[in-house]
Amino acid sequence: MSLGQQLHPHLPFLRRYARALTGSQAHGDAYVRAALEAIVAAPEEFPTDVDPRLGLYKTFHAIWSSSHLEDVPVSPGGSREAIAQARLARLTPLPRQALLLTALEGFTVDDVSYLIDMETTEVDALVEEALGEIEAQTRAKVLIIEDEPIIAMDIETIVRDLGHDVTAIAVTREDAVREAMADRPGLVLADIQLADDSSGIDAVKDILSEFSVPVIFITAFPERLLTGERPEPTFLITKPFQRSTVKAAISQALFFDEATAPA
């Protein structure tokens, strides 16, 4: 099998990575094209002691690291992709590389160590730095709508552990709407069944009629939302919940929220 045949299946994924790294399809494709031109010009210099995919990304990084610009262009718009690009663009180059190579491309830490010529401990530190920068970008005020005190306290702890502020804990629909209007949150965590038999669904509807905010429902009655008769929530967690599940949902909801996207 020729070198071109070996590399061909990996090109769509390299283009995806290049786009995420540079923030632009045009810029990303330009770097991919330059890497391929370098391989064609000097095939004998292509790494043969590693998997072809690793060799391809290694060549790409040699081109990118020698000429990339710090100012990453970001496509306009409020789409999920544009918001993600805006966040990634705010990361400094090395942490951005380490995060994308591990989280997006699925390379091991050892692979990334080879690709960017750093020790594995340094790669781990870069990934942590990138995650920390993203967490700082997505800090938000959170309104909790939950009538069970112990569950509410547990959710509050999770929220604060992630570095967010809790504006209030509301136990009824009326409380929830009042608190949301008094201190507009950047995220709402809501139960369905509330203290006075009012509905968390109705509370969320009331809030969303006033302003847009991402919502995560945490409920023992998911079937009340998964009816197929109305737009279903993006984030729905069933009680009893795992703390890790709530943390992941919060991070995901805020990562793609246009309101907290970097300017």
Automatic annotation (TrEMBL):
Coiled coil regions, renumbered to chain: none
Keywords: Phosphoprotein
Residues of the Response regulatory domain: 141-254
Residues with PTM 4-aspartylphosphate: 191
Keyword field contains Phosphoprotein: yes
SUPFAM superfamilies xrefs: CheY-like
Keyword rRNA-binding tagged: no
Matches recorded under Pfam families: PhyR_sigma-like (PF22233), PhyR_sigma2 (PF22029), Response_reg (PF00072)
NCBIfam families for this protein: PRK09191.1 (NF006623)
Protein name: Response regulator
